[in-house]
Every structure is written in C-alpha cells, then in structure tokens.
Amino acid sequence: MSATTDIPSLESLGFLPYINDIGELPEILQYQIGIYAIFDRSQDLQFVGYSRDIYLSLKQHLVRQPELCYWVKATTIDRPNRTFLESVQASWIAENGSIPIGNGEANSQWLDPISTHHAMTAAESDSFGDLDGLAQIKLLKQVARRVEDTILAKLQERGVQAEIRFNPKLKEQGLLDLK
User: Any idea where the domains of the chain sit in the sequence?
Assistant: First the structure.
C-alpha cells in the first residue's frame, strides 16, 4: 500500500470495520507488515501500533480491549523497517493532536498479556498464599478460564467468528494471551 519513503497521513486513509458483517477481522491485513490505528465506536483514535502481521496484532488488541476496537486504518510495507514504522507512528500521533490512551497511560493494557489476578474472589485471594505450588497453578488456571469466558462472551456479543485460542501455558501464571 505504501512505499517506505512516503508517510501517509492518517486522515487520508479510509476506515475499515474492525469486525465485518460476517464476524471476521480485516483479512486483507493478514501476514501484512505495517502500521495501524485503532478507533472506538465513535471513531476516536485509541491506539497506533506497528507489526509484522497486522491481522494477528488486531486480534490481540480485540481480546485485550474489545470495547475500544471498532474501526481500523492501516498502511502496509513490503519489508520490515522499524525506523520508518516509528516515523509513521509518531506522525499519526502528532496528527491526532494528542497521545491516544493506548499509546500513553493504558499502553500495557493494549500490549501486555491480560493479568487475571484481579479477578480472584476474596476467598481465593485469601487462600492463595496457603496453597502449595500445584494448587496455586490450578487456582490461577481456574481464574484465567473465568476471565477467558467473559472475554469470549463479549466477543460473541460483537459477532466475532475469528478463531480465538489462548495460550494454555500462560494460564498457569494467571495470564491470558493468544496462542
């Protein structure tokens, strides 16, 4: 879509629905290297990122922030070029006039695996320290599965049909991230 010398303005790119009418993410971005901007329902910029596979990154963000992923704008390049992608990212953020929340104070919520520790009940939290290693792992997996079910229910409400598979090993640590 773009040569590595041209920095397209964010305004010049068209909006793509994050989830199309058959419940799929923009497959045109699958296996594509580039930069993307994520917008909420009101088309307010939430996050600007770059990736070696925009589609997979969009899927990760949807799982982490399902309420904020409604629209996307993207441009692709043929070969990875971090310097160029960082330049475009800075340009788009400057064009926005302010740092999107996903690139600022909520950055970890957009980029890091989901910690499920906050979802422990008071009883689970109180007993956690008294459990042996295997029992702690079992409890963390149980809590992670509860949070996973909540996320999958939100995505189902949005009509998502794309396959969503979480990494089972991370659940043992109380974390959720896509496989």
Answer: 16-111, 114-176
